[in-house]
Write a structure and sequence with these properties.
By secondary structure, the chain is α+β, with helices and mostly antiparallel strands. The chain is built from two helices and ten strands, in the order ββββββββββαα.
């Protein structure tokens, strides 16, 4: 079993034992099972999944970090949402606004990276909500 803890700056999203966690790392999806090698990785916006005996859940997550050590998985992210918390129309409208802002933002690389991350998070939320 793995001890999974998912936190944002505002709250603890999840804290319990699970059998498997799949996280969207910067280099692709990573599956984590018991006795996984120690790992620290950045996370990109996407869908995080976790599974246990009587639990199977998916969350749309923003960027952040994951640390795996001694069967403990710590996920530190800016924001997370379950499918039931997502308003697809609102997220679609937000994505359009962000994409327009990106297309007119010019060459400010730092601002563009932040906008791209926000767009990817809205896309993840829409995909999660549409999959339920």
């Amino acid at each position: 079993m793995l001890k999974l803890e998912i936190v944002t700056p505002e709250k603890k999203v999840f804290d319990a034992e699970v059998e498997e966690v799949v996280v969207p790392t910067a280099s692709g999806e990573a599956g984590i099972l018991s006795n996984h090698a120690p790992l620290i990785s950045s996370l990109k916006p996407g869908i995080l999944s976790y599974f246990g005996k009587n639990i199977s859940e998916k969350l749309a997550v923003s960027g952040g970090f994951v640390e795996v050590n001694n069967n403990k998985v710590s996920v530190m992210i800016q924001d997370a949402a379950t499918a039931s918390e997502i308003d697809v129309e609102k997220e679609s409208a937000m994505r359009e606004v962000l994409e327009k802002e990106l297309s007119s933002s010019g060459a400010n690389i730092e601002a563009n990276e932040k906008l791209i991350e926000q767009i990817e998070f809205t896309k993840a939320k829409i995909a999660l909500a549409m999959s339920k």
